[in-house]
Amino acid sequence: MADSDPASFLTQANAILRKNLTYQKRNVWSNVRLIMIPFYLCLVLVGIQALFDSQVSNSLDNQCGCKCIHKTGDETCQMVCGVEYSTRDQAVFCAIPNPQPWPPLILIPLPRNRVVDANLTNVSCKQRNNCPVTILFTGNNQSLGATLSRNLFRRSFPMNYSDLLFSLADNVLATTYKGSPTNYLDAGIVSDRFIYNIQSRCTPNSKVSFSLGQSPLNFTKEMRCVQGLNLWINSSREINDDIFKGYLKGNSEGMINEIVAAYDLLDTNRTNFNVNIWYNATYQDDSGNMPPKLLRVPRLVSLMSNAYLQYLKSPRTRMLLEFVKEMPKPETKLRLDIASLIGAVFFTWVILLLFPRTSHAIVCNTMKKVYPGRDGNPPKMAVRGLSLAVPSGECFGMLGPNGAGKTSFINMMTGLVKPTSGSAFVQGLDICTDMDRVYTSMGVCPQHDLLWETLSGREHLFFYGRLKNLKDSKLDQAVEESLKSVNLLHGGVADKPAGKYSGGMKRRLSVAISLIGSPKV
């Protein structure tokens, strides 16, 4: 006879350990698969990473260009890598100990997209491709705004080729090309588009050619003059309206009238410099899929600060932004971490697939139905905390005495009455909020036949088929198959009024109604 004393904690732990060891021994292959599948997926990731590294990362197009240089008096050569031995695609991977300085540029609209004139009405300049570029001003002091706007642009092409960058900094250079992700190469200089010099007034055929950079990053550019137009606007709200109407979707006439920038001088005076700047951030591309592009804002800031300094001191006073350049960088290679790239998919494969899932067609959780009391009678508890789960494809029956709540439960599941509390799901759809969608996946055969005596069996099926969103040929096919499945198709029975059916035929028609459309429940 067993000892009457309760089992100690160690005895209970020993029993559980022995039980678990026996259970795991009999499920050893399940445990092996559980361990090997993640291990196999890790091997797949390692293989993909190795394949990518061999075919892409180690490709000559994705690393700095090199050349074998022969030494004097020696037949052997030494491999030397650098920008001078690289193509433009390879140059981004090279070490750049001394990055090339580039003149700061302002982004201006294409000639066909510019604001045409002060009244935004004259479109003839668009046909000639010589519309000015427009900068808007507003603030508390219009006379100060007029003074600062006059100090923005120069009226000549002062070029000193011995100190080219300083000479270019004395001009307001612009491009129609968006910025690059870095300043190692400026897309506005690398491209084949012109460099523009914004001036208050342009002389005919005013253009200058110059060379920028050092070999192999040496570019010959042509600089052309474009007129700069400064307009005073009464308020910042009007500037916002003009900017919005400058874009295609904001213009009621379907025109594009873009400006370069706008300045709000606010309360700026001789003792206070306070300015807001509007700039074009359309091409920043900060969606996260690609590195964001640099915006051409520094020259806009320098332009206004230099104009304000000349207003305070003298026209000869200048504070120029001579160039922009990147920080030095070491040699790099194209790297891609496959595990990080498909980490979410890998997590799904390894972790989420191990979580339990349900394939049950019906799930009920603590459903209750209480009918309110009437005529002084207390409330009636019809269903008391019912919970069940019925898998797909299972035939489930409910037994119980009269008044046990079977009919109330069926009425709740079919939407005839609402549960007092609890929840129930049919094919993952909540019967309290998604009953319209539940009806399309559920068939109901009531305890008593709900038929119209004057409608035929076929007409009944057409009605219920349409309620389940069956149309055209699919509806006709479903009706024929339902009639055939309950043996009501032959002998013209399907087209007879249901009132002339026998009790068994009416029951078969009710079954056909519940099964039309191949319901899942």
Description:
It is a single chain. By secondary structure, this protein is an alpha/beta fold. The chain has 4 domains: 64-93, no CATH class; 106-312, no CATH class; 359-442, P-loop containing nucleotide triphosphate hydrolases (Rossmann fold, 3-Layer(aba) Sandwich), CATH 3.40.50; 444-521, Rossmann fold, CATH 3.40.50. The chain contains 16 helices and 14 strands. It has helices at 9-26, 28-57, 88-91, 124-128, 142-150, 164-169, 187-190, 236-246, 298-312, 338-341, 343-350, 406-413, 435-439, 457-467, 472-485, 503-515, and strands spanning 66-70, 77-81, 106-107, 133-138, 173-175, 195-199, 207-212, 219-232, 261-264, 276-278, 360-371, 380-391, 421-426, 429-430. Strands 3, 4, 5, 6, 7, 8, 9 and 10 form an 8-stranded mixed β-sheet that branches. The longest helix is centred in the first third of the chain and has 30 residues, at 28-57. The protein is elongated. The mean pLDDT is 81.
